[in-house]
């Protein structure tokens, strides 16, 4: 195997690992977004107290921060 082939194989292995990491990050983001949707749907229920709504809002904001952080990990060069 010549040097170019070895370099190409090494590059492709790096790309494969990067792709796996991206897939894991996207899966984590998807899970957070589903949780956020569930919280949003729960907040629409009638009869929730102000305290319950504030609690849901805090949970939502926390998940939102987690999603932003995961997005930064997935694409650090494009997000600030």
Question: Can you offer a commentary on this structure?
Answer:
Helix 1 (3-43) runs antiparallel to helix 2. The model has no long low-confidence stretch (mean pLDDT 91). The termini are far apart. Helix content is 82%, strand content 0%. By secondary structure, the chain is mainly α. The protein has 2 helices and no strands.
Keywords:
mainly alpha, 80 residues, 2 helices
Secondary structure blueprint with pairings:
Blueprint: H1 3-43, H2 50-74
| Secondary structure category | mainly alpha
Taking all Cα atoms into account, the compactness measure Rg is 20 Å
Written as H for each helix and E for each strand, in order along the chain, the element string is HH
Low-confidence stretches: none
β-strand percent reads under 5%
Calculate the mean pLDDT score and round it. 91
Shape: rod-shaped
Q: How many helix segments?
A: 2
Percent helix: over 70%
User: Major β-sheet, in short?
Assistant: none
Number of strands: 0
Cα distance, first to last residue? Answer: 42 Å
């Amino acid at each position: 195997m010549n040097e170019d082939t070895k370099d190409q194989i090494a590059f492709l292995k790096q790309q494969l690992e990067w792709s796996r990491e991206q897939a894991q990050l996207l899966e984590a983001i998807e899970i957070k977004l589903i949780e956020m949707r569930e919280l949003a749907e729960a907040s629409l229920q009638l009869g929730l107290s102000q305290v319950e709504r504030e609690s849901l809002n805090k949970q939502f904001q926390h998940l939102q921060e987690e999603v932003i952080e995961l997005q930064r990990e997935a694409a650090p060069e494009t997000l600030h």
